[in-house]
Design goal:
Bound molecules: zinc ion
Shape: rod-shaped
Oligomer: single chain
Number of strands: 0
Order of helices and strands: HHHHH
Structural class: mainly alpha
Distance between the termini: 99 Å
Strand content: under 5%
C-alpha cells in the first residue's frame, strides 16, 4: 500500500467529520479530494447533505410555529381577560372616588359596590363564560375565585381599612 492509498483510506474515514478536523489535517484531506474521484464524490455527497439539513430544520420550524402561535395567543387571551377586569375596576374606583367627596366614605364605598354590581358583575359573567369555553378548569376556578372575592368581599375589605 503506497502513501497515496493510505491517505485515500484515511480520507474516506475523515471526510464525514471534515469540519471537525484540525486545519492542517483538513488541508491534507482537501488536497487529496482534489486528486481522487472517489473522495470527491463522497465529499460532494456530504456537502449536499449539509445543505439539506438546514432546509429540514426550517421545515420543522414551520411545523412548530402554529403551535407556538397558539400558545402565545392563549397567553395573550388570558392577559386580556385580566386586563379587562383591571380596567373595569379602575373605572369603577375612579368614578366612585371622583363623584363623592372624601367626607362621605360610606357613600363612596356604596358607589364602588354599586359600580361593581352594575359593571363588574355582568362583565365577569361574560368573561367566565368565555373562560369556560376556551380555557381549562384550573383557569376557570382561579377566575371564579378572583371574581367572587372582588364582587362580594372587596367592598367589605375596603370598608374595614377606612
Ligand atoms: Zn481518495
Amino acid at each position: 500500500m503506497d502513501d497515496q492509498e493510505k491517505i485515500h483510506l484515511l480520507s474516506q474515514e475523515l471526510i464525514p467529520i471534515i469540519d471537525d478536523l484540525d486545519e492542517e489535517t483538513k488541508q491534507i484531506v482537501l488536497e487529496h479530494i482534489e486528486e481522487c474521484d472517489k473522495c470527491k464524490k463522497l465529499y460532494s455527497e456530504m456537502v449536499d447533505m449539509d445543505k439539506e439539513i438546514p432546509e429540514h430544520a426550517y421545515d420543522e420550524d414551520v411545523e412548530i410555529k402554529p403551535l407556538k402561535k397558539l400558545v402565545q395567543f392563549n397567553t395573550g387571551l388570558k392577559l386580556l381577560l385580566i386586563a379587562v377586569r383591571i380596567i373595569i375596576l379602575f373605572y369603577i374606583s375612579y368614578s366612585s372616588f371622583r363623584f363623592h367627596d372624601l367626607e362621605s366614605l360610606d357613600q363612596m364605598i356604596a358607589a364602588f359596590q354599586g359600580g361593581i354590581l352594575l359593571f363588574y358583575f355582568p362583565a365577569a359573567v361574560f368573561l367566565l363564560v368565555f373562560t369556560f369555553t376556551f380555557f381549562n378548569k384550573k383557569w376557570l376556578w382561579i377566575s371564579l375565585t378572583a371574581d367572587i372575592i372582588i364582587i362580594f368581599l372587596f367592598g367589605n375589605i375596603l370598608q374595614s381599612f377606612i
